[in-house]
Sequence to fold (749 residues):
Amino acid sequence: MSAFVGKYADELIKTAKYIATPSKGILAADESTGTIGKRLSSINVENVESNRQALRELLFTAPGAFEYLSGVILFEETLYQKTSNGKPFVDLLNAGGVVPGIKVDKGTVEIAGTNGETTTQGLDSLGARCAKYYEAGARFAKWRAVLKIGPAGEPSELAVKQNAEGLARYALLCQENGLVPIVEPEILTDGAHDIKTCAAVTERVLAAVYKSLNDHKVLLEGTLLKPNMVTPGSDSPKVGAEVIAEYTVAALRRTVPPAVPGVVFLSGGQSEEEASQNLNAMNKLEVLKPWTLSFSFGRALQQSTLKKWAGKKENVASAQATFLVRCKANSEATLGKYDGAGAGAGDAAASESLHVKGYKY
Amino acid sequence: MASATLLKSSFLPKKAEWGATRQAATPKPVTVSMVVRASAYADELVQTAKTIASPGRGILAMDESNATCGKRLDSIGLENTEANRQAYRTLLVTPPGLGQYISGAILFEETLYQSTVDGKKIVDILVEQGIVPGIKVDKGLVPLVGSNNESWCQGLDGLASREAAYYQQGARFAKWRTVVSIPNGPSELAVKEAAWGLARYAAISQDNGLVPIVEPEILLDGEHGIDRTFEVAQKVWAETFYYMAENNVMFEGILLKPSMVTPGAECKDRATPEQVADYTLKLLHRRIPPAVPGIMFLSGGQSEVEATQNLNAMNQGPNPWHVSFSYARALQNTCLKTWGGRPENVKAAQDALLLRAKANSLAQLGKYTSDGEAAEAQEGMFVKNYSY
Fold:
């Protein structure tokens, strides 16, 4: 068979296309219990289930936000949670035209013999888990592979191959079980390298990823790509959004076949405003981009919202308004129409860099 | 903070060149640059590739080796002499206005250095016609040891200096044809070798100023159905692009010359142009990054009309790359027969060539209709075990 065309093929293609609708994007709300704990502690909120539920409810009931979202990535706990009125989150999302997704990887571990490079775990029983998540209402999945640019030529061939193969295996298992796989090969920004280095590494990694996907006969029309934008390293001088846009789009044009319906960028530590501006610049570029360029942001959608909420019920409405501003900004950015109006509403928080060196997700 | 003014010339094709219908209210000049994988010739390579991949135009493949040209001449009762080859190639490059439909011509080495009887360089005639001269650089197929009676393509030794000399002589693109055989497998080994050889050739070509045309021909021979061709084609292109990436080939400066996805020549089930287009476009969408400016299909034994109809079917909607032709037999067949080696037939032969060139030009634009096509042009040209 030339590509996997199991019983879910048509549905996968339809779902992937829908998620890639221009003017919409993905809210990545799949922080593991440990990671969400860091977020909550940053606003002095206790990491208990009710607070985790309250934060997600705040986001999912924000008036008007769903217009700008085509999908939300959930952590396993959240997939089975409900609103305070007892409505399952999954039902709430579906009613709002937002596809529920599920993080399925089990985190990274170091590859022995490398200089701190990692591979991602989670393949064991993945098929069965995906089938279960499908039953619970999920229709797409996400798996994050992590690579870094290092002084000794990292990422090594071993790390690239290992992560590409992991992504391919995960992708096929998802498709076998009805979930559109979001393929995420994140190249961290940590380092003092320039944008050209990031471009070269990104192209190298994406070429390897698509080689593996093709070798594993993954149905590209039923996938989405979640790459990093091409930027200078975090310790290097910044460049303008237009420069980032050009290098990023050129890298994608060299590696991503048109069969892939959408590219949903990760924000990886950029500030909310930076992420929107960069996405906007990419969509303004007058060059052929056969895939939608959109967002799958975690921190870059939630940061100022989180701060506004601060765990207090009386702040929910204004936190939701802040969240709406960011959703709308990114929606406009997918159309190349964002004019920076979102910068003010989120106050200083919107421009705050969210980069954490050596960030452990 | 760096700004757009630091960026140099354009690697990303300008909006006007990809013909999509998205209109900007006030179109802005695109100032972009892409310097990853640049060689000294990077800008020129991108420009040449774009020129060849221009709307309504395609490539005339006239790079038959002396032996193969001999077969052509023999078919019209002519002796295989340099004078006859010179006469034939002169006929091919001089039709007035050929450059309207033909953007590039692939030459054999002899022709690159040849002149007409009047002493005019063939290369110069082409350039005057607005046609970019190209050169076949491979050294043919030989048996691949350890495979299932398959072939591999020779030509990497000394390729760099040969290409540098061809560039001096006026060539601006190169072509290397390797083959993959479905009845023989193809074996993993044969596919890997085909892809790796192409990747090495492509990198060396770019380093010496020539746009590489990347041609892994999946031979028509066989009884297999279209699904099997599709499967093999996806594998071949996945390998080829991966190895080209590993060899740091710049995709904005290459052209592809694939075979269309069709059933094998001896398969009982035939396919309509729409089916061929469907499968072939799917292949392209799954394997070809949009950075590649042009995909110039080979005809591989299809009849002149078939080759045109199939191309036309592929251009019924916008594509992310220029989808066009690089035909030899499917452009030359009727022309050759009409000429028959007689000077008094030259005009009629050239008209026949222009007719086919125009038909394929229309097909590239998706506007071809087959009314008025002669029976001759519909005759298949498949030759079993064809050796090029």
About this structure: The longest strand of chain A covers residues 140-147.
